[in-house]
Amino acid sequence: MPSTKTQPARGMRDFLPEDVRKREYVIGVIKDVYERYGFEPLETPAAENIETLMGKYGEEGNQLIYKILKRGVHEGTGEADLALRYDLTVPLARVVAEYRDKLPKFFKRYQIQPVWRADRPARGRYREFYQCDVDVLGSRSMIVEAEICAAVGDILETLQFENFTIRMNHRKVLSGLLEGFGIPFDRQLNALVTLDKWEKIGSGAVEVELQKHGYSLDETTNLVTFFGKLTDRKVRSDRITVYDWDLFSEVRNQYNIETLTHLYQFPSEDEEFFKGVQELATILSLGQSPAKPRIEIDLSLVRGLSYYTGSIMEIGVPDLGGSLGGGGRYDNLVGMFLGQEVPACGFSLGLERMIVVMNERGMFPQELVSSPADVMVTIWPYKDAEQKLTATKDSLAVARILRNSGLRVDVYPVRNAKLGTQLTYAAKRGFPFVIVIGEEERTRGHVVLRNMKTGEQQAMSPHEVVSLVRGK
Amino acid sequence: MPSTKTQPARGMRDFLPEDVRKREYVIGVIKDVYERYGFEPLETPAAENIETLMGKYGEEGNQLIYKILKRGVHEGTGEADLALRYDLTVPLARVVAEYRDKLPKFFKRYQIQPVWRADRPARGRYREFYQCDVDVLGSRSMIVEAEICAAVGDILETLQFENFTIRMNHRKVLSGLLEGFGIPFDRQLNALVTLDKWEKIGSGAVEVELQKHGYSLDETTNLVTFFGKLTDRKVRSDRITVYDWDLFSEVRNQYNIETLTHLYQFPSEDEEFFKGVQELATILSLGQSPAKPRIEIDLSLVRGLSYYTGSIMEIGVPDLGGSLGGGGRYDNLVGMFLGQEVPACGFSLGLERMIVVMNERGMFPQELVSSPADVMVTIWPYKDAEQKLTATKDSLAVARILRNSGLRVDVYPVRNAKLGTQLTYAAKRGFPFVIVIGEEERTRGHVVLRNMKTGEQQAMSPHEVVSLVRGK
Fold it and tell me: Which residues in chain A (208-237) have CB-CB distances under 8 A to chain B?
């Protein structure tokens, strides 16, 4: 008996045909939309030099990076010189630095590849998972934000996601607000981490946690009052089941205008703060359908403590803890490789999350989950060896005609099986049609096409088979 | 200044947009053909438990496998628990063992994924490269070989490869021949390794090497005489430049028949040998166009010392050292995981080799290597802020209409650039069309479409743009 385990490595997954088809369907939509928005594809290696990745994702990231042993005589040292891709943004920054002379002034790329993180596996959290990123490098204009939101909105609409929300905030606005409440930049970290939990834990718990972090009673009260006033009036999109988009768009627009009004009235002297507010206003103003009615300014959105320096955004649907994707503007990351700042803004869609939701809600087209091929061709079970060979040749020749017309065709891959065995196999696999070529048909250049659902069967030419099966 | 290197890891590659497009074009053809032959997609994780891979590829393989360090507190031990995928066959065998109850009796899968080998990098040899595999599990019939050859032939023809040859041999025939020359199974290894070099080093050098390996003068002379007689008469497909396929097919067929005749006449009592000869004859007999006229029995083909147990095949084109792909029948591999033999036959196409040849011979369709998008929309450079915002909105709205009609559209992503700057950028990027929306057009709901090749420009509605650009 073999002793080897046959499961995939912990936290990783095998994708059987139906799984692959679903994944490729979603990836196909994402690619198509990004191409229509003028993004171009980029791919980078699974492994990077270890120094490219280390120190880019904080202490926790360093722990979660998969490291690859040196090879050959150095294997025994236990040292690593390579590491598996941890996200698609750091490799992008490296690529931009490496090929700056070859790349256009404005580099719009999409990248759809797996990344690896040695996280504790949990429901919907895997150690190998796909990210679908778009980024625009080289422009500081909010056109970029507007275009990215429109593209992501297009993708989700095409996939039949309905009530998704694009939450939008701005790092400079957040910073300016905290500063306005007397919390200078170097004391903002814990406050931001706490605010980020607002949606999850509520205002009361946020208040407690802020005080635990040492913020004064005044600071805490002011913060919670200000954010509370705004978030309490938030548009509860999960409550809405019938979509009059024009009306809903008005409601959400009203909320956004109120929020902007609060921000414009905020007693601050910080120019960066008002620049941030103006950028949020511009994104809303440039917003295109279908993203436009989905955008909602949410001042409690923080997006972790990552490299963002301007706008931040996150997309969610009701009932899904966590988001379907997020992104924002980061103007310093490329500089870590290039030694020169390059303005950048991007968005990352989480393929696995999208698929979880689409599976739960039955959003995949039926044809993806049905038959492995359009037709199965049987082989007439002659006893005589020569006749059997001729029958096999005929079946292969018929398959060839159908394949040349674009049909997906399987041929039963055994020459001495009874017809009943072949038909039972076809039924079990779910082929919608089966072709039988008996003595009589053979002499007339015909085949019998059997509809496996209805049991009907009819003799016809291979070319008639093509149009009949296509018509279904 | 940043100190980090910005090159990809040694032996690995970044793929910029044009590279990705070429790769996806080839992969698209491969997928499409395999689907039409009733193969279904499978994907497995990049990393496998280390014991799944170790010992499956010989001592050299063990050295070339990338090993991943344990994580967390175990990182310091320098031990590895995972390893990067080394080929697509061992993961397939694992999958078949793991999901045997879910998979059909005949499992026909294709898999197109990267593998990693810590080989010394050389021209056309990378440490990360794609394999495109098809395998059929569960059938011992030569229908499988015939179908695989036809599918691979279809792929190469679709990609415009012309004079490729499918060399075909059989492990049991090879074994039987050597046995017939007095070399029993346990002494065949070195003879096979030497015979494998026939094409490269010629009969004289083979003779010398056989004697160096300790084969007697008799054994050596008999072997070289027999193989020489066959290979000297080989059809030199590289000499042929005009393809009268019917004629050429006859010539090659004649050669195959002569070879089979020699084999049928070979003085052997080994049943397995004649079973092998019969299988070769059946594959030829079942051969379908376009593979049929390409198949050539080549008794000097050995295909390394891998896991093959029956038919072996390899595809090559003239001028290319090495092959475009190869495969064969292996009936014992799945058993290493399942504890039960499963008949299997497969073929692996080397994506990188195919792309090297296609690049050298200019075989990629022109549209793949041209423009990053169909149209670029400019933004009219008003000075006034409000007018500028309106102009931007208009440009985004026009882009939206074109994108909804399926065009790939870029919008110049900066709002304060002179029109000349925008047009220069468009020319440099190679967009075939540019849209300009001036004051006059705007009021009439029109845009100006500029053909960047001819310099012609014309006012029209966005919908007229769609049909005009599509028509090109």
Answer: none
